[in-house]
Write a structure and sequence with these properties.
This is NAD(P)-binding domain-containing protein. Keywords: FAD, Flavoprotein, NADP, Oxidoreductase. Belongs to the FMO family. The chain is α/β, with parallel strands linked by helices and 499 residues long. It has 2 domains: 298 residues, FAD/NAD(P)-binding domain; 192 residues, FAD/NAD(P)-binding domain (3-Layer(bba) Sandwich), CATH 3.50.50.60. The protein is built from 17 helices and 22 strands. A 5-stranded parallel β-sheet has the order 3-2-1-7-22, covered by helices on one side. Strand 2, helix 2 and strand 3 form a beta-alpha-beta unit. The protein is globular, with a radius of gyration of 23 Å. The two termini are 18 Å apart. 40% of the residues are buried.
């Protein structure tokens, strides 16, 4: 197995390329944009976007972010960091930019990819022994089909298209949604537009960068201890205790956190008090509150309404609550759709269920689709790290050196996780089931054990249990990449064996 195809040059694609290159493989990365970065690439980033996690958590294990970066780096800084990473590890020469994959199919134990050079329109077919799909869960912007949208006199944009404040200036702006991008854009519009409206169906919990203006969020959200308070699909001994005899402690933990957020953000005064429990929401969609967002809502700079758009008529937006607003610009912070439009239909049916949920073992492979893997479809609260570890897992999978369960156990595990997402924790189905948060450590530990590696950097259990995640630990745990495979060797196709 010599030629590895990687689709996407975002952070997951770069980590995967670096991992396979260091193991001696020939790698070709196909990227439809003109630059690396994926969701952080400038043409896809809205103005003012920044990381949700801190500089040290949002970094690869062997390539820390510059110390002069702020604690929450901007999108532009993340883009520069990813470019430096790709340059440092020799990934850049292997990327074909401005190239799109139209069809990926299997023939004679190989993968054929029909690709198109976007500037020239020239087509080509590439042959790979193994393919890693790294297009991520934020590849296709989702804009609702509003009744009467064709009559709108202004512009309808996705939040990722808000490239700068000039787009908002002297405009009556309406923003739809309550996720990170929607509240970020609304906060920006409040300072630049003539009017700013925020329309949302359901108020969601948001967290501050500093709880109580004192404690960095990582200490309350990014440790094994904090993860134990969630009702996991598979529990450790401590988790079994917490969710049985220790239930009162779990209840007090979450109600105390809600009380803190209600007070810190003044949620009642903003009329944005969520109706659901915070523990039922925390996942990849957990948003960090933009600085000044709730203050702007309370002051009226952001005119927020819990409703939805009924129809559009010219520059008038009719709302389901019976009121109307006038707008020149409608911005949809309504997320992304996860699709595999380029994958052959037969294989796509194995991987994506009827309701659009991905069915992947460890969120990486499907036993019926050989020599194909996914990196970045295990989104977490620190995706750089979970993608990096997944890339190492996929390398060993391609080499046939993982400690995997028997084929029937793999299928049972996939069925169990699919059912748990539907019945045990419905929020786990968001992003088409590609989010592993808040069970970040559980997922990482599974991958590390499959690789026969330790799960903690030290033997001091109390320290490992309470300290926040530290990607640098995994530089020690992952060690050196596997040695180069001789070119003459025919690698085992583990997926064929599983199937």
């Amino acid at each position: 197995m010599q030629h590895i195809g990687i689709i996407g040059a975002g952070l997951s694609g770069l980590a995967t390329a670096k991992t396979f290159l260091r193991a001696g493989y020939r790698v070709t990365i196909i990227e439809k944009a003109a630059a690396i970065g994926g969701v952080w690439e400038k043409s896809r980033s809205y103005h003012g976007v920044a990381t949700q996690t801190t500089r040290d958590e949002y970094a690869f294990s062997d390539f820390p972010m510059p110390k002069d970066y702020p604690l929450w780096p901007s999108g532009e800084q993340v883009q520069l960091y990813l470019h430096a990473y790709a340059e440092h590890f020799g990934v850049l020469p292997n990327i074909r930019f401005n190239t799109a994959v139209s069809w990926l199919r299997r023939e004679d134990h190989a993968w054929l990819a029909d690709v198109t050079d976007l500037p020239s329109g020239q087509t080509d077919t590439l042959t790979f022994d193994f393919v890693a799909v790294c297009t991520g869960t934020f590849s296709t912007p989702s804009i609702p089909d509003f009744p009467g949208a064709d009559t709108f006199k202004g512009k309808i944009l996705h939040s990722s298209q808000v490239a700068g404040p000039d787009i908002l200036k002297n405009k009556r702006v309406a923003v739809v949604g309550f996720a990170k991008s929607a509240t970020d854009v609304a906060t920006l519009a409040a300072d630049n537009a003539t009017e700013c409206h925020l329309l949302f169906r359901k108020a969601q919990w948001k967290v501050p960068r500093y709880f109580g203006n004192l404690i960095n969020m990582r200490y309350l959200l990014f440790s094994r201890f904090s993860e134990a308070f969630f009702n996991a699909p598979r529990k450790t001994a401590f988790q079994k205790f917490l969710h049985s005899a220790g239930k009162p402690m779990v209840w007090m933990q979450w109600r105390g956190l809600e009380l803190l957020l209600k007070k810190q953000f003044n949620l009642k005064a903003c009329n944005m008090l969520p109706s659901h429990k915070i523990e039922d929401q925390i996942s990849c969609s957990l948003g960090v509150a933009p600085v000044g967002f709730y203050e702007k809502v309370k002051s009226g700079a952001i005119r927020a309404q819990q409703t939805k758009i009924a129809r559009i008529d010219g520059d008038t937006i009719h709302l389901a609550n019976g009121s109307t607003i006038q707008a020149d610009l409608l911005v949809c912070g309504t997320g992304f759709r996860q699709t595999l439009h380029f994958l052959d239909e037969q294989d796509r049916k194995h991987i994506i269920g009827e309701k659009g949920h991905f069915r992947l073992f460890r969120n990486i492979v499907h036993p019926n689709v050989p020599n194909l893997g996914f990196v970045g479809y295990n989104s977490s609260l620190f995706t750089t790290l979970t993608s990096e570890v997944a890339a190492h897992w996929l390398l060993r999978y391609a080499q046939g050196s993982l400690r995997l369960p028997a084929p029937e156990q793999i299928r049972d595990d996939m069925a169990y996780m699919d059912n748990w997402r539907k019945t045990g924790r419905p929020i786990a189905g968001e992003f088409s089931g590609t989010c592993v948060a808040p069970f970040n450590f559980m997922h990482l530990d599974q991958l590390m054990r499959d690789m026969g590696l330790r799960t903690t950097a030290t033997r001091w259990i109390p320290y490992e249990f309470f300290k926040p995640i530290n990607p640098k630990d995994y530089r020690i745990l992952l060690g050196d990449s596997p040695k180069e495979i001789p070119r003459s060797r025919t690698a085992v196709r583990p997926a064929d064996a599983i199937a």
